[in-house]
Amino acid sequence: MRKQLSFLSSAMLAALLSASPVAAEALTLWLEIGGSADLPFTARCRVEGDGGRETVTLDERVPYRRGFAARTVNCEIEPRSRGRLVVTLRNDRGNSISRSATTAGPGTTIRMSVSR
Predict the structure, then answer these.
(1) Paired residues of 91 in beta bridges
(2) 44 CB contacts (<8 Å, ≥6 apart)?
(3) Among candidates 106, 23, 33, 113, which has minimal Cα distance to 75?
(4) What residue ranges of the chain have pLDDT lower than 50?
(5) CA 33, 55, 105 angle in degrees (round to 5)?
(6) pTM above 0.90, yes or no
(7) Digit-coded pLDDT (tens) for 82-95
(8) Looking at residue 107, what DSSP letter applies?
(9) Residue 84 · residue 101 · CB < 8 Å
């Protein structure tokens, strides 16, 4: 069984938020990846929070959104084909903390680091 310490998928988050006000307070950072529809990308995020440290590896497509209950998130995101990739880290109030974009293809890496 895979252990999930410090991150929540959007579906899991919706269920938790509707059931518990404490869960809403625990979530601090959102990773949002947009741009060219269905653009494939990979990402590696190192997450540090009250539950410890964890590395999250993603192989997804645009659009994508994921929440992290964390103090620190460090991500490296790489497009797997040519297109527009927009990466945003937001706090739980929806304010943008960091944003970067590229239209380059494979071989390009967006690096982002946010500490609470």
Answers:
(1) 29
(2) 55, 56, 57, 58, 75, 76
(3) 113
(4) 1-25
(5) 40
(6) no
(7) 999 999 988 877 67
(8) T
(9) yes
